[in-house]
Amino acid sequence: MRKDMRRLAAVLIGVAAILPAGAAMAEDNGNNMRNTWEIQYDSMHPCIFNDRHISNDTVHVYQKMGQRGTISWYRGLTVTDNHGTLTDDDKVKRNSDAWGAGPSVMGRYEHELTGKLYGGLDATGTLMFYNKAFPAGGRGYGFMWRTGPRLTWKSGEKDSFSVGYTIMHCSNGMKSRNPGYNGNGLTVVWSHQF
């Protein structure tokens, strides 16, 4: 197992260890909204840019914070393992392997399709901090923006499972040293109300 993947696994184990404690401390607002947690996994592959071949495996852990009509709001933590290369203007490939973590927010529109099947659209924003300048020529921090449709199966009162297509843009928002990149891929989600 790669060194970065071991670090990612250690962070995920830590997050998993605090989930029950966080759920126990969450205030009950009458419908246990703040006791709803979900784990998302993305496998993203490069798209749009021909000179940025960066893929990532990312885990997001979210806690539901509120709902207004068909829109829900979440807060959470994102951990990512990035790997690939970025090709400079002079055609030199530069290694762009890094891992990172940061706070995240998510908004979700959801609509019942039939019985237990729901359609939805997620939009997330994350402030990422990396273990080194990422991608090559960038900085040690950046933003990860994600959006995409998903289908959710509510298997019972407490659990649901989703699958979706997600597109992503990452950059640090600066005018210099800002080699942004894009990705797309599959997202799978498990949600549970404690």
Helical element count? 1
Number of strands: 9
Strand content: over 45%
Strand order of the largest sheet: 1-2-3-5-6-7-8-9
The overall pLDDT average reads: 86
Pick out the low-confidence regions. Answer: 17-30
Secondary structure: helix percent: 10-25%
General form: elongated
* Terminal-residue CA separation: 32 Å
- Using the CA coordinates, give the radius of gyration: 18 Å
Structural class: mainly beta
Which sequence of SSEs, written as H and E, runs from N to C?
HEEEEEEEEE
What does the main sheet amount to? 8 strands, antiparallel, barrel
What is the secondary structure topology, with strand pairs?
Blueprint: H1 3-25, E1 36-47, E2 52-68, E3 71-87, E4 93-95, E5 98-114, E6 117-134, E7 139-154, E8 159-171, E9 181-193
